[in-house]
């Protein structure tokens, strides 16, 4: 075997040559081993080092109560949820629309009335409801708005001081329309819950200079979590109502 440098040392012993070969072989092994270690330490393209998503912040009512009125907060959120359930019961039904229309709420000049308090409601055949506003004509615009915004999929037609409302037939399209309106009412409830949440968070922000920043931040997160609990409950109510309207189990 040729060994570099042998030509300059013709008298080198066989033992010395073998020693040189052995040392060279060991150095190569060490070098290859170090490269393998570096490669093993490098992350593979498939490893995910992203942070796990944080779950909802636990609600501690005692802590929230240090900065806001917890009972009032819960009451405001519950009122919104109760209103959603009431709207579903009154306005989103496959039964005759006449009963729902009678109890339809109409806002007029800062006051709220049911439609039967301000109008005469009757029928002209099985598929047509007649609303007579001759005794209260100034409320016509508000009644039409209430009917169009009711979520019942109605198509009111005005003729002077009278409103004619065709009763929709219970078709697949009508069911789908009501289910869509259920989502619209839920979205209004969700926005209302956000407004309540932001109202109480503003209260906390006003007190930030009086308390520790950690407490203020924690309470804001907990208020958000509490609002989300009510929104989540409202979503369950919506899904149940949609399944009922669509005839699903």
From TrEMBL:
Pfam families per UniProt: RRF
Keyword Protein biosynthesis: yes
Gene Ontology molecular-function annotations: ribosomal large subunit binding
UniProt KW keywords: Protein biosynthesis, Signal
Signal peptide stretch: 1-35
Gene Ontology cellular-component terms listed: mitochondrion
Chain positions covered by the region annotation Disordered: 38-57
GO biological process terms on file: translation
The keyword Acetylation is assigned to this record: no
Domain Ribosome recycling factor: 84-246
Family stated for the protein in its record: Belongs to the RRF family.
Name by which UniProt lists this protein: Ribosome-recycling factor, mitochondrial
Species in which this protein is naturally found: Daphnia sinensis
